Amino acid sequence: MTGLAATGANPVPVPATTRSAADIEAWLRLTGARGLGTGALRQLLATFGLPHQLLAQTVSALVAVIPEKHARALLAPPDAVTMALVERTVAWAAVPGNHVVTLADAAYPRPLLDLSDPPLVLYVKGRLEALGGPAIAMVGARSATVQGVEDARRFARVLSGAGLSVVSGLALGIDGAAHEGALEGAQEGAGGTVAVIGTGADLVYPARHRDLAHRIAAHGAIVSEFALGMPGRSHHFPQRNRIIAALARGVLVVEAAARSGSLITARLAAEMGREVYAIPGSIHAPLSKGCHLLIRQGAKLVETAQDVLEELGMAGQAARPVAPAPMPGLDDVLGLTLTHDPVTLDALCARTALPPEQVVASLLELELAGAVERLPGNVYRRVS
Q: Fewer CB atoms near the end CB (10 Å): N or C, the chain?
């Protein structure tokens, strides 16, 4: 027997090669088996070897590991839907930069074996080597604030420039900003970025991140455990969060509400022995509640990317610091009265003793410059 150990749950790595249609068919039949969880499938592989060896067994042999009804379903000839998916996958994998990586391949990311249910098959678009280096996950709210987006981008740029790959989920808000910052930082260091998605690797969701996805594939990697053509479904995104947590040495939560998928990712990371970091915010900000909850539960409070690097023992590897965005006109008009905490227009007028029209004009200028954020209710706060 080759490729998989006869005992134990983990495979012996074998070199990744160009996959044949028969090989892809065997793996897809296995991953598409209904009623069998990853644990049962791994036990079958550990017992019988690679999928083509497993599928060559008899029902009577398989029933030593799984129920008879599941054994018969697994050994039944593939239907037209499965064969169409096989054809689609073979064509996709033939495109340069596209990879079908299985649990038996040497290229399979070893950190994923810390999961109780590691994916049997990964679809990777981009550079396989992007999955092999030290990584930090960054997650947060989709409806992020301007400050949160700026923080995510700045942290990711420094961390990537220091040699860490930034792992996130390609979602709107914090995820997208983290990927953007990591791509910028990769130009200064050895880092990069990995996007773990909740659709097939041949789809981009959300659609507005199509250009970003192409740049990630060119300079990092896009990873999915879902079959090609699979649309995004609500349960896919919490499921992919476990891969984000497993791939990284730690998870940094930038902004999160008290009930947030980012907190699930943080919990999964902690359960696997990964570090959890959180950026604090205003006590008045709803998207700081989740970060503050994590800090109370033991997450490490970080204020700069350097804090994260120090925790990871990489303090001397930081790239040059990124200067914050300037605040044109702030000293002349608002001084220190506009802080990172939300403040009303009336309060600003009272503090500065300036007429409302002058304050509004200055705030508009600062908002257009990306230095001030206007919140619902005519409330403002400083971004950087």
A: N
Question: Is residue 218 within 8 Å of residue 186, measured between CB atoms?
Answer: no
Q: What are phi and psi of 301, to 5 degrees?
A: -75, 130
Q: Quote the CA–CA distance of 121 and 107 in Å, as a whole number.
A: 11
Task: Specify which residues 98 forms β-bridges with.
Answer: 125
Q: What is the mean pLDDT of residues 328-355?
A: 66
Structure token digits, residue 206: 């959300």
Lowest-pLDDT range of 74-83, 88-97, 348-357: 348-357
Secondary structure tally for the chain: helices H, strands E: 16, 12
- The 10 Å Cβ neighbour count of residue 136 is 31
For residue 90, how many other CB atoms are within 10 A of its CB? 17
Q: Sign of the CA dihedral 13, 17, 21, 24?
A: positive
Torsion angle of C-alpha atoms 301, 305, 306, 308, degrees rounded to 10:
50
Q: What is the architecture, at CATH level 2, of domain 330-382? A: Orthogonal Bundle (1.10)
Give me the residue spans of the domains in the chain. Answer: 1-96, 128-317, 330-382
- Minimal CA–CA distance to 135: which of 173, 92, 89, 191? 191
Task: Please return the burial class of 168, using the count of CB atoms within 10 Å of its CB with bins 0-12, 13-18 and 19+.
Answer: buried
pLDDT at residue 346, rounded to an integer: 78
DSSP H/E element including 52: helix 51-54
Determine the distance from the C-alpha atom of residue 324 to the mean position of all C-alpha atoms in its chain, rounded to a whole number.
Answer: 25
As a whole number of angstroms, the distance between CA 339 and CA 324 comes to: 15
Residue pair 182/195 in contact by the 8 Å Cβ criterion: no
Would you mind telling me the total number of residues written for the chain in this entry? 384
Distance CA 139, CA 255 (A): 8
- Summarize pLDDT for 85-97 with one digit per residue, the tens: 999 999 999 999 9
The label of the residue with tokens 């953007």 reads 180
Joined tokens for residue 366: 């600062």
Q: How many CB atoms lie within 10 A of CB 263?
A: 24
- With 50 as the cut, is the pLDDT of residue 331 above it? no
Q: Which CATH number fits domain 128-317: 3.30.2350.10, 3.10.690.10, 3.40.50.450, 3.40.50.1260?
A: 3.40.50.450
Per-residue pLDDT band at 18 (split at 50, 70, 90): low
pTM value surpassing 0.85: no
